[in-house]
Amino acid sequence: MRPALSDYQHLASGKVREIYRIDDGHLLLVATDRISAYDYVLDSTIPDKGRILTAMSVFFFGLVDTPNHLAGPPDDSRIPMRCWAARWWCADWRCFRWNAWRAAI
User: Fold this and answer.
1) pTM of the full structure
2) Fold of 9-104
3) CA torsion 45→12→98→72, rounded to 10°?
4) Which of 42, 65, 82, 87 qualifies as a cystine partner to 35, CB 3.0-4.6 A?
5) Which band of pLDDT confidence, cut at 50, 70 and 90, is reported for residue 88?
């Protein structure tokens, strides 16, 4: 089952991630608890995998002194940090759209 965040336009689904459009300058990347091995998505999930991967990404992007696509950590007032859908949890982070990010460099 894919996430359904009805407030945002769903752009793409990957094996373990989802991409939504927040506005003209920002995308929402959702890391799910789904597991992929050798291009096959398994039926089982790893609890909190998406949340942990998101926290690690935010942490390490904060350490590097290089422009990147991260617009900021999850904003609980705009997007729930964890959203329940069927049998998995997800975590999210906001990112600049590539063209907007590239123009800012």
Assistant:
1) 0.66
2) Phosphorylase Kinase; domain 1 (3.30.200)
3) -40
4) 42
5) very low
